Amino acid sequence: MGNCLNSSAKVDATLSSASDALRNPSKTSNSSVPSSLTIPSYSGKFSIDSLPTPRSESEILSSPHVKPFSFNELKNATRNFRPDSLLGEGGFGYVFKGWLDEHTLTATKPGSGLVIAVKKLKPEGFQGHKEWLTEVNYLGQLRHPNLVKLIGYCSEGDNRLLVYEFMPKGSLENHLFRRGPQPLSWATRIKVAIDAARGLTFLHDADVIYRDFKASNILLDSEFNAKLSDFGLAKAGPTGDRTHVSTQVMGTHGYAAPEYVATGRLTAKSDVYSFGVVLLELLSGRRAVDKSKIGAEQNLVDWAKPYLGDKRKLFRIMDTKLEGQYPQKGAYTAATLALQCLSPDPKLRPRMADVLAALEELPSPRNSKHTKPEHRAAPPEPARNSVKHLHHRSPLNMTPSESPLRTQLRSPRPR
């Protein structure tokens, strides 16, 4: 999860029942949910649940779309959290690979049934529990093809775990910045950007601000479909005539919008800025912040901005791993879009729905001419094989007049 960027910012109102919940953990019985509970079918559809807005921990944990697991069930599913089942480690805790029966969601032998990812919370006390509860709150209500599926949770004693669908290709961060994985093609990069934009657009239509959009929170399935994960920092958007939400500044350095870092005023346009940073990472293959670079090159936005609006200079920031195999017109359009998202003035940034529409208007790489940038230090000529065709899906058409999440959980995230 994200990091605290500025402890002097205003602190949100906390969930009224959170303190009581920690002193008296929920005693929801695992038997309260039928053993035949199955994972909701997404089938390319999306929805905002019509359930009443949760106001207490017990209401949040009683969502019909997630199953309460016992600690022993998840222990069996992950082979006792064995080291060879470990998928990764983050600020939240450790993530293990496990297996469940597809119909009963009971533990099954490795290699059979439904593959899952089990996130085990580090015992860090009050705030960790609240972030865990926030995630159950949102993913227990929000369903969309570009949001990771939450299958269930465990709240037993001091144990806090979350059970997700398994995303076999890992995170976008791994594919962009770490050695080993095959470089992502231009078509795949744009596909990931479109998928992520769909997820953010859906959240904004539901009056939810994601607040921690970054490459490591974008997970990829076996076909490189992208889904947003880690909702511990999500916030309900402003209500009534309010223009922003005042909150303690949380997130990740390099991705957070400058006005949010400076004032603690959070809006959906804060997410748009973060999207611009990730789009820039997709174009350049560079991290938002890279301390191994020298001087101005350490901050990707500062380094790349002068080149984004210039067709003749854009190649200087393009990822060399693309080897020149990208349409110059499409790259310039994406770069211009990134520049708009990164505007210092949030009012000048486009809405995510507009960002999504612009990305979906990019020409199919299969019909695009791949040309070499005109510069003596340009990458080599494109290989004979053309870039894989990007299959477009229809844009979202989700504009609920009233969101059931307007009075959602509002928890601070101090460290």
Task: Provide tags for this entry.
two-stranded antiparallel ribbon; disordered C terminus; 415 residues; six-stranded mixed β-sheet; 27% helix; globular; alpha+beta; 15% strand
Question: What does this entry look like structurally?
Answer:
This protein is an alpha+beta fold and about 425 residues long. It contains eleven helices and 16 strands. The protein has a six-stranded mixed β-sheet with strand order 3-8-9-6-5-4, sandwiched between helices. Strands 1-15 form a two-stranded antiparallel ribbon. The model is unreliable at about 5-45 and about 365-415 (pLDDT under 50). The chain is globular, with a radius of gyration of 21 Å.
Summarize the structure.
The chain is an alpha+beta fold and 415 residues long.
How many beta-strand elements? 16
Helical segment tally? 11
Characterize the biggest β-sheet: 6 strands, mixed
Order of helices and strands: EHEHEHEEEHEEEHHEEEEEEHEHHHH
Instruction: Report strand order across the widest sheet.
Output: 3-8-9-6-5-4
Strand content: 5-15%
What ranges have pLDDT less than 50 throughout 5 or more consecutive residues?
6-45, 367-415
